[in-house]
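Appendix B, Record 12. Input sequence as logged:
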Amino acid sequence: MSFKWTRKRDGGADMLVKRVVDSDGDGDNVTEEAIHVVPKSQIGKIGEGKFARAMYEGPENFSIPAFRFKNS
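Logged structural output:
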C-alpha cells in the first residue's frame, strides 16, 4: 500500500491511497485507488521558524470509496 500527499493552492490537500492486489487468484494484479480530500481546516502547523511543518488534524478514522481496475 502506498500514500501520496499533495498540497493544494487553497491550503487543503489530497491524499491518494493505492494498493495492488491479486484479488481473483489468476495472477493478474488488480489496483485499488482512492482519494481523500482534506480541507484546509484539518491541516494545522506545528513548530516554529525553519522547524515549522504541516500536521493533519482531521478525524483519526474515515472511509473513502475506492476504484478498482485490472492492470494490463
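Strands lie at 2-7, 13-21, 30-38, 43-46, 53-56, 67-70.
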